[in-house]
UniProtKB/TrEMBL annotation:
GO cellular component: cytosol
InterPro entries: Cof (IPR000150), HAD-like_sf (IPR036412), HAD-SF_hydro_IIB (IPR006379), HAD_sf (IPR023214)
Molecular functions per Gene Ontology: magnesium ion binding; phosphatase activity
Organism: [Eubacterium] hominis
Alphabetically ordered keywords of this record: Hydrolase
Gene3D superfamilies: 3.30.1240.10, HAD superfamily/HAD-like
Record protein name field: Cof-type HAD-IIB family hydrolase
Amino acid sequence: MEKKFLFFDIDDTLTTGGMGSFIPDSARNTLKALKKNGHVVAIATGRPYAMSKDVAKDLEIDSFVCNGGNTVVYEGEKIYNEPLDQAHVKELLRECIAFGFPYCISQADDFFFLTKDMKALPKLDNDFLSQFIQEADFDPEHLTQVKRLMIYVNKEEQKKLTSFPDLVPQRYDDAYVMIEPDDKFKGIKKMMEILKEPIEDVVVFGDGENDIKMFQQAPISIAVGNAIDELKALASYVTDRSDEDGIQKACLHFGWISPEDISK
């Protein structure tokens, strides 16, 4: 059997319903069977490192791509870690200041965001990020390691912002937009270079907007049934929903595992 390097998105791909949901037993058993059959199993997620490492540990995966492709962990060690394009960040912050849009920034691979004025930030209902925002004194013109930004604008106001031409803004709440890395395949390529393995053996699984660049570049791309239509149109194969054993069914379809592997 030809060895494959399979990269799985976490939220709504491995899991059943976004952040805080669970990974079905069928997906867990499939990952174990893939590894037993000699395939390499990894994660490719938009989550920062702090929100990825526990999932990886739970799944007994020690190499993964996180932070939207800007961070690569190999055998438990960060071997590649870069921020957003800082020139674009500074231009975007100048726009926020000019328009009076509140914002906060993250400079580390953790949960914490920093802002210059807590009073300017609207209270976020049902948003776990809100408890990790802290006030800090910083000069936007001298920032050098911004990993992601939260800008408090609605969809209409967002149209005024033009300084993130190469990024897909993510909206997890109507109150704000998140500017974060979105080319997971960049990190996948970096890992394959380190492993000295052919990129042709890569398989990716995903469901959302931040998987689009990955699907555009991967040799084999598999969309779960609950994926957005744009991603399904790019996919090599569309499987069932993540909560209907989609991961397992796809791996059975391609012959990377057998029914006997998952019945043991």
